[in-house]
Structure formats: C-alpha cells, structure tokens
Amino acid sequence: MITLEVRTNSREEIVDLTDQVGAALSRAGLVEGLCHLFVPHTTAGIAIHENADPDVKRDILMALDKLVPDDPAFRHAEGNSAAHIKSILSGASASLPVSGGRLELGTWGGIYFCEFDGPRRRKLHLSFAGTDQGGEPLFL
Amino acid sequence: MITLEVRTNSREEIVDLTDQVGAALSRAGLVEGLCHLFVPHTTAGIAIHENADPDVKRDILMALDKLVPDDPAFRHAEGNSAAHIKSILSGASASLPVSGGRLELGTWGGIYFCEFDGPRRRKLHLSFAGTDQGGEPLFL
Amino acid sequence: MITLEVRTNSREEIVDLTDQVGAALSRAGLVEGLCHLFVPHTTAGIAIHENADPDVKRDILMALDKLVPDDPAFRHAEGNSAAHIKSILSGASASLPVSGGRLELGTWGGIYFCEFDGPRRRKLHLSFAGTDQGGEPLFL
C-alpha cells in the first residue's frame, strides 16, 4: 500500500491527484493490473472526473450542495451530516485499470479527491494488484 | 469467496458489518492486499461510513429518503423503484485495503450494509486478493 | 484488459452489458476471483441493477434527471455538467466476484452501462484478477 497525503484548504474542495497517483504507480512497478483507491475518511470521497475545465470542479461541488443541503433535521452532533452523505454519494473507493504501466483513465479522466468537511490533512490509500515488468504477480 | 448472511428487520435499515468482515478476513488469512465487498441485491447497497455516532445512520437514511422519495411517476410494477435508485447511489461494491492482516478503514470507518426494501434475508459477498503470511499470492 | 465497445443511440440510455461481460469472462478464463469494470468516460457510469423489468431502466434515468436537472447556474462551457454529476453518482468502477467461472451477480443483477450524454461510441474496460482452472494466478 502506498499512502498519499493531501492537505485541503477549504470547507469544500476538489483536489486533482492524477499526477501523484501516476507517480506512485511508477514507484510500485505495476505494469498490468489494477490500482485501487481508498479514502479512509467519512467526510471525503473519490471521483473519477474530467480534469480539462476547472468549472467542472465548481459545478460538481455546487450540484452536490443542492442535492444535500445542510438540514436542521440532521441529528448528528458534529453538524457535518451533509458531508457524510456527500461522501457516500461520491464513494470511498474506486478501481482503475493499469495497462502498459499507465492508468487507463480515458482522454479526459482525472482522479479527484473530494473534500466535504475541510480544511484538513487527508490520506488516500493506493493498492496495486497485477503483474510487474517480468510478468510476475505483484501486490502492493 | 466468503458470503455473510444478513437479516434486516425494517423497510430501511443500516447494519454495521465491520466486525463480521474483520472476522472473515482473519479466516481468509489475507495479510496484504484487498478485501472486495459486493451486494448481490438490487435494492440494497454498501457504504463505508462513520460508526461512532448512531445518529449518522438515521441521518443517512433520512437524507437518501429526501433525495429519492416515492414518486407516483415511477412505473416499475413492484413499487420499489426508490429502493433501486438508492441502491445505485450508495453502490453495490467497494474495495478496502488490507495491511498487516487488518482492514485499513481509518479511525471512524465502518462497513454499512444499507437495506432499502426490507425486511429480508440478504447476503454480502467478500473476495480477497493479495498475499498471505508467507508472502504467497492468495485469492479467495 | 478486455475492452467492450458500446454504441449508444440516445442522449440518455441504459445498455445492459451482462451477457457481453459474461462472454469476456469466459474468454479470459478466470474461474475464481474478481471482474473489475471501469468506464473511461466522464459523462457515463456503471450500475449493477435489476434486469428483469424494463421499467426499472426508465425509472432510474427519470430519478437521476430529477436529482440533477439541467441548471442555469452550471458554468462548464460544454453544457453537460448534469451528465458529469450523474456519472459521479452512478460511479465509474465496480468490482464483481467470480466463482466457478461465473459472475456472482445475484438473482436479478445485471450490468448496466449508463449513458448520460449520448449518442456516442463508448468503451467499458474489464480487468480480471484471480485464478484459472488450474488454480494458477491469472491477471488480465
């Protein structure tokens, strides 16, 4: 497992981790197989999304905010229930194919870490399963 | 594959399966790698979520209910379309990293089985991929 | 990795790929393990869902449309922000258990490719990890 550290600077924020995950993949030495992402937090999530236009990030956060506004009916004492629900909607894990030593994300795909209750120090766990350059099984 | 049996007691209910998944992991003997969860039902889902405060469970079900209320425009004859949509929003699968023989869920993370059309008998399939104590590949 | 080609014919459409994924699984020769699905597009998604009643497909698209309507507040220049958010809600990846050479989808489970910004030519990447008929590790 390789763990990336992420520092978020706002209450809600999307951080593009595509390059860091790609660098970790190179370090891991996986050539064919899968890169699994896991967010070990319950008020953040992961999304595979378009990294071409910065307005997409804003639109995603705005749309999730309209979907799950702060609601006086929430009982959770910490007052961050909306962030918990957004985390469920975006998801805590994702599995990305790796081919020829590269992430197969598609033309526009980026790896977005979604912060819903920041600013905080966060982690993203990366696990790798497949074969290395010699075709031998590799788990990391 | 190891299959857990879950009995739900209400129409909508969140069942914390963190301990049962941990016990299955021990039985499987996986030390490094991944534990994959899959819900083989189309009106239930899986969420990785905070297991500290019971109010979070209630807030999640309430928020999903506000997001996808029963709608007279639904045509599906069984009348449980809202449950189907909630199942898609929470998701049918998740992949959790395992390190040193333990689930890397984070401080507050719990594994929540989400029932949206109970009470029923349900299943959760667990698959394991990685290496055992001797560093040998293990698939279960 | 095996890549399926999908042609969609409408702006929004759900395409049942259960049979094609099953056929790819047979070609791959995986007997025990996991089949990972990944959508390399940011305006489409994957859902595991009920393939018995065609009305369920319609209800899913209608419910997602009510959840994320076109919104004049969206700024993304291409005008397809709603499709991007729907893609995040349904998810880009899923992991399905394989046992005895067959997908363990449950009685009613089907693999739904969700098009939110068609018609287009689309892809679905399939990765396989586990063991073959001889019990040897297999990654594809």
By CATH reckoning, the class of chain A would read Mainly Beta
Mean pLDDT of chain A: 93
- How far apart the termini of chain A lie comes to 5 Å
Given the helix and strand composition of chain A, which structural class is it? alpha+beta
Tally of contiguous helical segments of chain A: 3
Strand count, sense and closure of the main sheet of chain A?
Answer: 6 strands, antiparallel
The CATH superfamily title of chain A: YjbQ-like
CATH topology of chain A: Jelly Rolls
Q: Please tell me the CATH architecture of chain A by its name.
A: Sandwich
By DSSP, the count of extended strands of chain A is 9
- Helix content estimate of chain A: 25-40%
Shape of chain A: elongated
Unreliable stretches of chain A (pLDDT < 50, length at least 5) are none
Tally of individual domains of chain A: 1
Oligomeric form of this entry?
Answer: homotrimer
Structure write-up:
The structure is a homotrimer of 140-residue chains. With 140 residues, chain A is an alpha+beta fold. Helix content of chain A is 25%, strand content 39%. Chain A contains three helices and nine strands; from the N terminus they run ββαββααβββββ. In chain A, the strands form two sheets. In chain A, strands 1, 3, 5, 6, 8 and 9 form a six-stranded antiparallel β-sheet that branches. A three-stranded antiparallel β-sheet of chain A has the order 2-7-4, with helices on both faces. In chain A, β8 (121-131) and β9 form a beta hairpin. The longest helix of chain A has 14 residues, at 54-67. Chain A binds chain B through residues 1, 36, 38-42, 67-68, 71, 73-78, 81-82, 84-85, 87-89, 91-95, 123, 125, 127, 129, 137, 139-140, and chain B through 32-34, 47-50, 53, 55-56, 58-60, 62-64, 66-67, 89-91, 94-97, 99, 104-109, 129-131, 137.
